[in-house]
Amino acid sequence: MVTSKEVQMQDLIRQAEALCQRSGMAFTAPRRRVLEILAASETPMKAYDLISKAGEGGQATKPPTVYRALDFLCQLGLVHRIEQDATFVACNHAGHAQPVALFVCNSCLKATEVAYDEVSHILEKAAAAKGFNLQRLVVEGRGQCQECAMAA
Amino acid sequence: MVTSKEVQMQDLIRQAEALCQRSGMAFTAPRRRVLEILAASETPMKAYDLISKAGEGGQATKPPTVYRALDFLCQLGLVHRIEQDATFVACNHAGHAQPVALFVCNSCLKATEVAYDEVSHILEKAAAAKGFNLQRLVVEGRGQCQECAMAA
DNA sequence: TCCTAGTATGTTATTACATAACACCCTATA
DNA sequence: TATAGGGTGTTATGTAATAACATACTAGGA
Ligand SMILES: [Zn+2]
Ligand SMILES: [Zn+2]
Ligand SMILES: [Zn+2]
Ligand SMILES: [Zn+2]
Predict the structure, then answer these.
(1) What is the model's pTM?
(2) What confidence tens digit (pLDDT) does each residue in B85-104 have?
(3) Cβ proximity of B140 and B119 under 8 Å
(4) Residue A4 has pLDDT above 90, yes or no
(5) Interface membership of B106 toward A (CB under 8 Å)
C-alpha cells in the first residue's frame, strides 16, 4: 500500500532534485536522507531526533552532518526551522522563497503553514515608522489545530 | 552624572516592584539583579552572559538562578525572549501583556519594539481559515536600524 | 596526465543553551 | 508549632549547535 504521505514525499524529493539541478547544487545522500526523514514525519523534529533516525540501520550519523544538511535545505526553502522550539519541518510547497507563518498545535504538535503577504507589508511599514529597515521576518504561532479542536 | 539610561532603569525597577506587589509576587534579589543587568544593557543578552555578569563581585551565580528569574520576568512581560537567537531584552514599556514584534539590527544588535495590533487580527483570521485557533504569536525581524543606516 | 580549486562529507572535540532533582530557607496561616 | 507554598542554592545532567581539521570527489586548466 502506498499512502498519500508517501506520494507527497516522493514528490517533494523530486522537486528538491530539480531545484538543486537548477541552482547547480548537489542533492547528496545526507541531504536526501534528512529531507526524507522530515518529509515522512507527522510533526516537526528536533535535530537530535533526526540524528538518531538518520543513524538507524547504517553507520552512525554525527551532528555536523545533519546540521549541514539542515542549513542547506533551509536555505533552499525546502525545510523551515521553527525558532520557538528549535525544530525543523519539511515545507510542503517545495521551495517557495516567500515567507510563511508556522503555527504549531499545542496538542498534536503538527505545524500548519500560512502565507502572510499582507502582514509583511504592514510590519515593514510599522518598522519603517521607527526607522528600521526590515530584511527578514519570523512569524510563528501556537494554538490548536482543526483536528484537535474537533476531538475536544 | 546620571545618564538617561540609568533613569530609565530606575523607572523600570520601580514599575517592576509595583507590578509584583499588585500580583502578590515577590520581587526578590536575583530577580531584581537580572532585570537591572538587562535594563543596563544596550543590546539583548544571552543567558550565559547574564550569568557571568550576575556573578561579578559576589558569589557565583548558577544557571538555574538566572533562568528562573528570566522565566518570571518574561511571564510578567518585563523581559522579552528573542527566539531567533535565544537572547533576552528588558521591555521598555514595563509590563505590557500585549504582543510586540522585536526587530534586531544586524549591525549593532540593538532591538526595537514595535506593536502590531492589526497584524495579530489578520493572522488570527488567516489561521482560522485553516481551522487553526491561534493563541500565542511570535513576531521577530532582522534588518538595519536607523542609526546604523545613517552611519552607512 | 597532473595539478589545483571548489564543494561536500567524516570525525573528534568542544561550546553554548537549558533543566531535573533535591536540600534548604522563609513566611503566612491554621 | 506544625505545615504548605513559594523561592533560592547546588550538583549534575540533558539538549542544541559549531569549531577545526582530515578526507574524498569533481571539474577545469597547465
Ligand atoms: Zn514552506
Ligand atoms: Zn492538533
Ligand atoms: Zn515590551
Ligand atoms: Zn543598528
Answers:
(1) 0.94
(2) 999 999 988 667 678 899 99
(3) no
(4) no
(5) yes
A123 shares a domain with A80: no
Q: Residue B120: inside a domain, yes or no?
A: yes
CA atoms within 13 A on the CB side of A10: 5
pLDDT tens digit sequence for B77-86: 999 999 999 9
Contacts with A49 (C-beta within 8 Å, 6 or more apart), sequence order: none
Residues of A in contact with B152 (CB under 8 A): none
How far is the alpha carbon of B88 from chain A, nearest alpha carbon, in Å?
Answer: 14
Beta-strand ranges (E) seen in A6-122 are 45-46, 79-82, 87-90, 100-105, 111-115
Question: What is the tally of structural domains in chain A?
Answer: 2
Per the domain annotation, does B95 fall within a domain? no
Q: How confident is the model at residue A14 (pLDDT cuts 50, 70, 90)?
A: very high
Q: Of A56, A90, A124, which closes a domain?
A: A90
Taking C1' of C15 and every protein CA, the nearest residue is B48
What residues does A137 pair with on adjacent strands? B141
Cα dist from B54 to A26, B3, B67, B78, whole Å: 47, 22, 12, 18
Interface subset of B 29-88, CB within 8 angstroms of A: 83-84
The answer to whether the CB atoms of A122 and B118 lie below 8 A apart is: yes
Sign of CA dihedral B130, B134, B138, B141: positive
Say if A118 is an interface residue toward chain B (CB within 8 Å).
yes
Its domain, for residue A127, covers: 100-151
Fill in the amino acid letter for A118.
E
Mean pLDDT lowest among A129-138, B42-51, B110-119:
B110-119
